[in-house]
C-alpha cells in the first residue's frame, strides 16, 4: 500500500504555527506585512471551507527586540521578557488587523508551560479554546514569554503548537518554517541529503535525521519539530512541515508543493478515548439512570440530570467510572466537576447548575469527547 499525503480539505480543525523568521524580516527587523496578508488569505480560505483555525504565532521577542534596539544574539532573560512584553502587543495587533480585514475575529491566548501540562489548568485553557472555536473566532496563541521562567518554559513554539493541537483535538498541525521539510541529513551541510515527503511513523532512524539547527530568530530546529510530530501523532493529529517563506504557503501545500507529512495512526477522538480508557487511574464513579445510559449509547454527553449517585473523592479533570443502574461499569471519562459539586447538581437539570453552585459551570458532567464507553 502506498500512503498518500492527505488533502487539506479533509481536516476540520487545523493549527498553523508561524515561525518568527517568517513574520519578521531578520535583516530589516521589520514585519513582512504583505506576506502576513497573503497568509491571512490562506487562513480565511480554510475557515470559509468550514475548518476551525488556530494560529500559534512566534515573533514577540523578535518584534520587541527591534523596537527596543537590543543587539542581535542571545538575550538575558529579563531582556527577552521585556522584548516579549513590547513585541506581543504589536504581534496581537498585526494578527487582529490581518484577520479582521477578512471578516475573521481573533482572540489572543498566552500560555505558560503549566497551562498545558497541569491537568486542571489544561482543562480551563481547553474550555476557552473550545468556546472561541464555537464562536468561529481564530485563537492566536503564543507562550507567555514575559512570565515564563528560564527553567519552566516551552522555549520553542513547535512543541507548544503540538500541545495546542492535542489540547484542541485538532486533526492537523501545519508548521510553517524556513525549511521545506525533513531531509535524510541537514541539507545545509550535506549535499547528498534527500527530501522525505511522507513519514508514516516516527522511529529512531527519523529522529537521527534531525539536526539541532536553530537561527537567531527562531528557537526550534528540526529536533523540536520531530518532538512536535511525536506529540501531535500520539494525540491524533497529522503534522506537516512546509516552507513558509513563499507567499500563500498553505495554498502551496494543497497544490502538492514540497513539504513533509507526518501521519498519525489514529484520529484525535479515538486517540483521546484510548488514553482515557487505558492509562488513567479512576478516582470515583458516577452512577447513572437508564435514560442517561440510553443517551450515552446514542452518542450524548453525561448530564447531571441522569446521575443518581456520586462515589469517591475526585477533582475536576480526574478520570471516573460510569456505572449503570445495576452497578456495572459501562465506561469512564474525565469529569468536569469535583466530587462535592457533582454531588450537589446530580439529578438536576443543567439550568439549575448556576443556582446550586453559585457559578455557571459546564452543562455536562462528562463531555462526550472525554468519555470512552466499553465496547466503543
Ligand atoms: N515565543 C517566542 C516568541 O514569540 C518564540 C519561540 C519560537 O521561536 O519558537 O518570540
Structure description:
By secondary structure, the chain is of the alpha/beta class. It folds into two domains: 9-268, Acetylglutamate kinase-like (Carbamate kinase, 3-Layer(aba) Sandwich), CATH 3.40.1160.10; 280-373, Roll (Archaeosine Trna-guanine Transglycosylase, Chain: A, domain 4), CATH 2.30.130. Helix content is 38%, strand content 22%. It has 14 helices and 17 strands. The chain has helices at residues 20-23, 33-48, 60-68, 77-100, 113-117, 119-134, 157-167, 204-209, 222-234, 249-254, 268-279, 290-297, 339-345, 353-357, and strands at 13-18, 24-25, 30-31, 52-57, 106-111, 138-143, 172-177, 182-183, 195-196, 198-199, 238-243, 259-262, 284-288, 307-312, 319-323, 329-335, 366-373. An eight-stranded mixed β-sheet has the order 5-6-4-1-7-11-12-10, with helices on both faces. Strands 14-13-15-16-17 form a five-stranded mixed β-sheet, with helices on both faces. A hairpin with a 4-residue loop joins strand 2 (24-25) and strand 3 (30-31). Helix 2 packs across helix 4 (77-100). The longest helix has 24 residues, at 77-100. Mean pLDDT is 88; it is low at 212-219. The structure holds glutamic acid. Glutamic acid (GLU) binds at residues 20, 58-62, 142-143, 145, 156-157, 218-220.
Amino acid at each position: 500500500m502506498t500512503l498518500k499525503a492527505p488533502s487539506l480539505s479533509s481536516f476540520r480543525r487545523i493549527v498553523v504555527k508561524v515561525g518568527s523568521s517568517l513574520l519578521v524580516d531578520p535583516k530589516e527587523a521589520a514585519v513582512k506585512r504583505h506576506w502576513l496578508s497573503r497568509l491571512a488569505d490562506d487562513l480565511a480560505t480554510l475557515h470559509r471551507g468550514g475548518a476551525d483555525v488556530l494560529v500559534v504565532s512566534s515573533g514577540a521577542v523578535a518584534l520587541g527586540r527591534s523596537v527596543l534596539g537590543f543587539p542581535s544574539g542571545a538575550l538575558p532573560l529579563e531582556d527577552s521578557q521585556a522584548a516579549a512584553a513590547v513585541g506581543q502587543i504589536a504581534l496581537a495587533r498585526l494578527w487582529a488587523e490581518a484577520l479582521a480585514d477578512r471578516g475573521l475575529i481573533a482572540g489572543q491566548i498566552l500560555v505558560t508551560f503549566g497551562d498545558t501540562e497541569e491537568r486542571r489548568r489544561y482543562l480551563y485553557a481547553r474550555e476557552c479554546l473550545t468556546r472561541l472555536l464555537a464562536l468561529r473566532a481564530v485563537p492566536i496563541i503564543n507562550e507567555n514569554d514575559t512570565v515564563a521562567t528560564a527553567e519552566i518554559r516551552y522555549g520553542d513554539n513547535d512543541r507548544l503548537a503540538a500541545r495546542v493541537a492535542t489540547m484542541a483535538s485538532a486533526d492537523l498541525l501545519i508548521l510553517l518554517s524556513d525549511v521545506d521539510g525533513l531531509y535524510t541529513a541537514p541539507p545545509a551541510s550535506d549535499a547528498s541529503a534527500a527530501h522525505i515527503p511522507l513519514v508514516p511513523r516516527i522511529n529512531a532512524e527519523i529522529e537521527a535525521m534531525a539536526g539541532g539547527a536553530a537561527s537567531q530568530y527562531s528557537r526550534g530546529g528540526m529536533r523540536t519539530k520531530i518532538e512536535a510530530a511525536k506529540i501531535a501523532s500520539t494525540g491524533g493529529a497529522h503534522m506537516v512541515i512546509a516552507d513558509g517563506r513563499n507567499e500563500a504557503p498553505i495554498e502551496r501545500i494543497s497544490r502538492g508543493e514540497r513539504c513533509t507529512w507526518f501521519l498519525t495512526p489514529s484520529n484525535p477522538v479515538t486517540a483521546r478515548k484510548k488514553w482515557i480508557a487505558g492509562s488513567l487511574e479512576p478516582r470515583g464513579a458516577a452512577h447513572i439512570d437508564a435514560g442517561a445510559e440510553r443517551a450515552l449509547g446514542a452518542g450524548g454527553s453525561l448530564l447531571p440530570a441522569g446521575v443518581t449517585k456520586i462515589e469517591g473523592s475526585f477533582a475536576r479533570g480526574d478520570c471516573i467510572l460510569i456505572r449503570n443502574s445495576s452497578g456495572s461499569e459501562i465506561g469512564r471519562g474525565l469529569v468536569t466537576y469535583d466530587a462535592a459539586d457533582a454531588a450537589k447538581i446530580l439529578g438536576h437539570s443543567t439550568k439549575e447548575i448556576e443556582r446550586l453552585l453559585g457559578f455557571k459551570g459546564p452543562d455536562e458532567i462528562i463531555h462526550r469527547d472525554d468519555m470512552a464507553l466499553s465496547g466503543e
